[in-house]
Amino acid sequence: MEMLNIVKIGGSIANNEQKLTPFLNEFVTLDHPKLLVHGGGSAASKLCENLDIPIRMVDGRRITDEPALDVAVMVYAGLINKNIVARLQGIDCNAIGLSGADLNIIPAQKRNHPSINYGFVGDISADSIDSYFIRRLLEEQAVPVFSAITHDNNGQLLNTNADTIASVLAIAMSSSYSCKLTYCFEKNGVLEDRHDEKSWIPKIDRQDYADLQKRKIISEGMIPKLETAFDALQNGVKYAYIKHADELNSTIGTELTL
Amino acid sequence: MEMLNIVKIGGSIANNEQKLTPFLNEFVTLDHPKLLVHGGGSAASKLCENLDIPIRMVDGRRITDEPALDVAVMVYAGLINKNIVARLQGIDCNAIGLSGADLNIIPAQKRNHPSINYGFVGDISADSIDSYFIRRLLEEQAVPVFSAITHDNNGQLLNTNADTIASVLAIAMSSSYSCKLTYCFEKNGVLEDRHDEKSWIPKIDRQDYADLQKRKIISEGMIPKLETAFDALQNGVKYAYIKHADELNSTIGTELTL
């Protein structure tokens, strides 16, 4: 099967011109077919602050009420997504920005939690992804760029975790492609010592992951990346990496294996 | 040639749930192929106000500086566009939201005016539109929904007039389809007496237009619609209408002819 590159960047790269430019220059050199998924957390928080929209938390979890959803849609699906698309077009990469509502590619379920009302948060699964148009776009040499906005198929937009979107898209595409999932962030991979960029661990399997967690080497923010990456590997995705956004084409980084 | 419906709605409809819902219910009943173009002016002005971004005017013309462009991208390409897409998906219409940067469909020229610096405003022409992907999407039964954001092909997003986008798209699509361009707004058409909704003029040609202008029957806001509609008719578009957003399928409205 043909290889498909699925790359995810977080908001701290997507929102920062100094970091975004070198990343996109690396990204365009990857072989086609490829697709990009981006987050955007910090810019949305900043806009909420500027608009005096309080960030609502329940039991330590962030709640997406209606004003917070509008901000997420504006920042993720609007500002960040279209800026990345224009940048890619400027370096001869035929990008198309998509949310999960577009072409009904990523329908989601509004989260139904027994005690916490998370608000407009969408949970997704690989089964419900409609990969037809992604394949058609890739066949036409287009490069889909996904923001982490989905919909409930009943007119309501929803906010979804970008790591999960990347993983679930990779699983869904695995029936047609040999998928390589790469989470890019600002470190050289999973670090043995978080203050030493040279301490990246080349390979981590499930057992190593459990050991690293016991030793408290794995930071809070890393857990969803590792969990969704292992989930992807268990469900048909061929390769999974955690890498620095500038090192997409180098051997620096952590490979995850089952 | 097959008929293509190109419908444009202004921000006052796109931003107002009470007006948007009946419009979209009408829109979905139109025969395929069809596409939608939307504006969004008032919501962007409101967000600028809430963010204390001053609205800059030079010689009575609005200037799109960087903060104003960011707001336009967030509101037009993000909030309004994705909301319309989700709404359409909710009523079984396979919508895809696009800006002019996506798939490089609408490249623009940053406006170069001898005395006024309009900022990030993009001027467009039918020649530069790449209609290939629009045709492919229409053939796949998808319904493109365009926001009025374009790009300069060099990484920069630009703000473009939505009436112009609708007209220029219609001209570009006229080589493949028999195009019907409809501007929807909140009146029953061009009114003989602006206080009487029943006074809509069924047909206006260039000569009538000149006469109506002399008699000061044509309001400020109507001029760009009429100008771009006549321009469309002169450049291959088959039909052009100005109608009420609720009367898309009725005989009420003004037809423009050369």
In short:
By secondary structure, the first copy, chain A, is of the alpha/beta class.
General description of the model:
The structure is a homodimer. Chain A has about 260 residues and is α/β, with parallel strands linked by helices. Chain A has a single domain, classed as Acetylglutamate kinase-like (Carbamate kinase). Chain A has eight helices and 14 strands. The two termini of chain A are about 20 Å apart. Chains A and B meet through helix 4 and strand 5 of A and helix 4 and strand 5 of B.
Structural class of chain A: alpha/beta
Largest interface: A-B, 40 and 40 residues
Mean pLDDT of chain A: 95
- Report the sheet with the most strands of chain A, covering strand number, pairing sense and barrel closure: 8 strands, mixed
| Quaternary status | homodimer
Strand order of the largest sheet of chain A: 5-8-2-1-11-13-14-12
CATH topology of chain A: Carbamate kinase
Q: Using the 3D structure, state the CATH architecture of chain A.
A: 3-Layer(aba) Sandwich
Can you give the helix content of chain A as a percent range?
Answer: 25-40%
Q: Determine and state the CATH class of chain A.
A: Alpha Beta
Global morphology of chain A: globular
Indicate the proportion of strand residues of chain A.
15-25%
Q: DSSP helix count of chain A?
A: 8
CATH superfamily of chain A: Acetylglutamate kinase-like
Number of strands of chain A: 14
Give the terminus-to-terminus CA distance of chain A. 21 Å
